[in-house]
Amino acid sequence: MDCFNGGDNTYQEFNSISARGLKPDYILTSDFHAWRVSQLVKQHGLSSRVIASSSQTLRPVNCSYNCFITVNLSNFDFYSKLVAEFSSYAVYRLTAAGLTGIRSHQIS
Length: 108
Fold this sequence. Notes:
The chain is built from three helices and two strands; from the N terminus they run αβαβα. The protein has helices at 10-20, 34-43, 67-100, and strands at residues 26-30, 49-53. Helix 2 (34-43) links the parallel strand 1 (26-30) and strand 2.
């Protein structure tokens, strides 16, 4: 296992992995980040297997008269995190050349 500070965010971490020439066999991440991490694995030409670990942010709810509303509100955290992951990666892809120095033809 190789541990190092790759940067403040996932994008910097992957740039650090590439700069060091590392080819990890496995990358462990949370279930919310797994999709974005798998996209970055492809982009950087790695053959790493992404392993998702449950982050379990949904909590049991006390079902009463407002059960329908309570359940929907508890799911909001889940959906907002997934939307944030997709949005983060979309912004990264649109601005990759400016932020990382990767030219658009290098991004597949």
